[in-house]
Automatic annotation (TrEMBL), chain A:
Keywords for this protein: Cell membrane, Membrane, Transmembrane, Transmembrane helix
Recorded topology in the membrane: Multi-pass membrane protein
Main localisation: membrane
Lineage: Bacteria, Bacillati, Bacillota, Bacilli, Bacillales
Molecular function terms from GO: transmembrane transporter activity
Protein name: ABC transporter permease
Taxonomic source organism: Cohnella abietis
Automatic annotation (TrEMBL), chain B:
InterPro entries: ABC_transp_permease
Pfam family, one: BPD_transp_2
Topology class, membrane: Multi-pass membrane protein
GO MF term list: transmembrane transporter activity
The name this protein goes by in its record: ABC transporter permease
GO CC entries: plasma membrane
Keywords in alphabetical order: Cell membrane, Membrane, Transmembrane, Transmembrane helix
Compartments where found: Cell membrane
């Protein structure tokens, strides 16, 4: 276990990285905007200026928390899956099918059923690269990337043909999902939907799973040192498949929550790379569930800030990309953290492991 | 009706021309991916590099009026960013996958940012009269019925791409640099103990991948379309990455892989243009991805068998 000093050092390093990334964004704004201070204040302060914006932050954070959790699980087992995007599509698609085509029943049964269908869909789709990795050692980076395209194209085919809504107005989408199983708004007058509760619950469940159960322990051990784990009697292959399936299930949940909360039906290409944003979240959070929650809220905040900045100043919202990229690079820069630790050790303090 | 259309295009060789056009960016980017992969620094940032080069190439090309300057600028920017990748992954010890991933996000966002800041546009930038990479018309052969259509009238970049395959073969297998590159990728510590400067070789491998991805991107804006559209690469960089693996990490294999991918895109394009086609274009577009996965499984099975016979 890490000592509390090491944790402080790590948190401090991450905060420094966040600060530096923001600084890089500000510098670019200073150089390219004719009203830099309006732009920066719109970026930093406007997201909190109205309940509508706060609701938007929460809504944007929901899929990020879920895909971030999905990827943090699979990354912890040492598998570098990029497949959350595809699993999210399959999960959302299967869940939406269950939402539209199951016979009429009580929403108290129907809604959980829809969520479970989505998770099973995502998990089974995740099993494919998992099995290929565990038993054939096929690079998961390539298989998951390819399976993303397959998932997007397959669902696009079905909502353009068999499952196309008759009244879709020319859009490729499914029939509308019945109103009583859509996620309700949390508070009247605020646009935040109940998905945030599901996301928070998922954070707790993943935390317990990863740190309080034997499968979580085995999973992390395989990620830290596969050979050691195998000699220790852990069925590494099974653990890898299980971790990819759990991850796929959570990604599927992310997809259906987005459908039930925002879109109200399955639409072609609805995700716009939520699965890839999840990779950033997992990286920023260092794969820790609590970190995922914080990182996703921060990331959603920056996204909403970028939007309010686009409305309120002459800066396009893509400036936020600079902040995102610097964040990813600086937080994952091992050299900085090693350097910090060495400095810390040299100043006469007790050496930190 | 689809089959008639496809057959008609095969007979009059226009399918072949479309195939060459669509194959070229995949092939160039994949050659870039190959060199970095051989050097042990897998570059998944090809997509972002291509986008940055595509934007720079058309922006510089249209403002200077010269496609050569445009393409060179695109390649230059792409190489510069890949040096940046080297800085972060080799010096700052960021995982090379994460670095590449960051480059992809950066390429997509930053080109849109520049387009909106410089030209005030959000979707696409199509300067009128921007110079194009010229088509190569071969005298005499041009007039020979079949041969003319096969060989003449293609973009210069198509030829550069094909020649690059031979260049890479030579570079990887016939030069001392190639030997160093392969040894760094295979066994970095062994290479280091022989006095090969690993990091310098890896920087250069990334630079090569930047150069080829740059050519691919420049061709997409200055050759294929004569405009820049946001996210115009639309996964070509990922296709190229798949081709690197499909091609079994050698230039000829990569040529074959690019042809398969190019053919699938060409067929999907044709099927999409036929009204009420009985073949869904989505499934044709899916072919390369499925082929890649199958090829990966095939190689993995072969590896497993080889290891089993060794044991």
């Amino acid at each position: 276990m890490k000592s509390s000093r090491a944790i402080y050092l790590e948190v401090g390093g991450i905060l420094a990285a966040v600060f530096t990334a923001l600084l890089c964004g500000f510098i670019v704004i200073l150089f390219t905007s004719s009203e830099p201070f309006t732009a920066i204040s719109a970026l930093l302060l406007d997201p909190l200026s109205s309940t509508f914006n706060i609701g938007t932050i929460l809504n944007k954070a929901v899929p990020l928390i879920l895909t971030g959790l999905a990827l943090s699980v699979v990354f912890q087992s040492g598998v570098f899956s990029m497949g959350a995007e595809g699993q999210l599509y399959i999960g959302a698609f299967v869940g939406a099918l269950a939402g539209v085509y199951l016979p009429v029943m009580s929403p108290w049964i129907h809604m959980p059923l829809v969520l479970i269908c989505a998770m099973i869909g995502g998990a089974l789709y995740g099993a494919i690269p998992g099995l290929l990795k565990a038993y054939l050692n096929a690079s998961e980076i390539v298989t998951t990337l390819m399976l993303n395209f397959v998932a997007i194209l397959t669902t696009s085919y079905f909502v353009n043909n068999q499952f196309k809504a008759a009244n879709g107005g020319g859009y490729a989408r499914m029939e509308n999902i019945s109103k009583d199983i859509l996620l309700p708004k949390l508070f009247p007058g605020m646009n935040a939907h109940a998905g945030i509760l599901i996301a928070l619950l998922a954070v707790v469940v993943v935390y317990l799973l990863m740190y309080k159960t034997s499968i979580g322990y085995e999973l992390r051990l395989v990620g830290k040192n596969g050979h050691f784990a195998r000699y220790g009697g852990i069925a590494t292959r099974k653990v890898i498949v299980v971790s990819v399936m759990i991850s796929g299930g959570i990604a599927g949940l992310a997809g259906i929550v987005e459908i039930l909360g925002i879109h109200q039906t399955f639409k072609e290409n609805f995700s716009a790379s939520l699965g890839f944003d999840g990779i950033i979240i997992a990286l920023l959070a260092r794969n820790h569930p609590i970190g995922v929650l914080i990182a996703a809220l921060f990331y959603a905040y920056i996204q909403v800030g970028a939007q309010t900045m686009q409305f309120g100043s002459d800066m396009p919202r893509e400036v936020a990309v600079i902040i995102q990229v610097m964040l990813v690079l600086l937080v994952s820069a091992q050299a900085i953290f090693t350097y910090l630790k060495q400095r810390y050790a040299k100043t006469g303090q007790k050496a930190v492991k | 009706m689809v089959w008639q259309t496809i057959w008609g295009q095969i007979v009059d060789l226009s399918l072949f021309a479309v195939l060459l056009r669509l194959m070229t960016p995949i092939l160039l980017a994949a050659l870039g991916g190959l060199i970095s992969d051989i050097g042990g620094v897998i570059n998944i940032g090809l997509e972002g590099l291509m986008l940055m080069s595509a934007f720079t190439s058309i922006a510089v090309g249209s403002s200077t009026g010269s496609w050569v300057v445009g393409v060179l600028a695109g390649v230059g920017v792409s190489m510069l960013v890949s040096y940046g990748m080297g800085f972060f992954s080799l010096k700052m010890k960021v995982d090379i996958i994460i670095t590449g991933f960051a480059v992809n996000i950066f390429g997509s966002g930053f080109t849109i940012f520049l387009m909106s800041k410089i030209y005030g546009l959000t979707g696409n930038y199509s300067p009128s009269g921007a110079p194009r990479i010229p088509l190569v018309k071969i005298p005499f052969i041009e007039d020979v019925p079949v041969l003319g259509k096969l060989l003449s009238g293609h973009s210069l970049m198509v030829w550069i791409a094909v020649l690059s395959v031979f260049f890479c073969l030579f570079l990887i297998y016939k030069t001392p640099y190639g030997v160093h590159l392969r040894s760094v990728g295979e066994a970095p510590y062994a290479a280091q103990s022989l006095g090969i400067p690993i990091k310098r070789i890896q920087y250069s491998a990334l630079a090569w991948s930047g150069a080829f991805a740059g050519l691919a991107g420049a061709f997409m804006s200055n050759g294929l379309t004569n405009m820049f559209v946001k996210d115009m690469t639309a996964g070509t960089g990922f296709l190229a990455l798949a081709v690197v693996l499909l091609g079994n990490r050698n230039p000829i294999g990569i040529l074959i892989g690019s042809i398969i991918f190019g053919l699938a895109s060409a067929l999907a394009t044709i099927v999409q243009t036929v009204p009420n086609s009985p073949i869904p274009s989505q499934f044709i577009q899916m072919i390369p991805y499925v082929v890649t996965i199958l090829a990966l499984v095939f190689f993995a099975l072969q590896n497993k068998r080889r290891l089993a016979t060794l044991a």
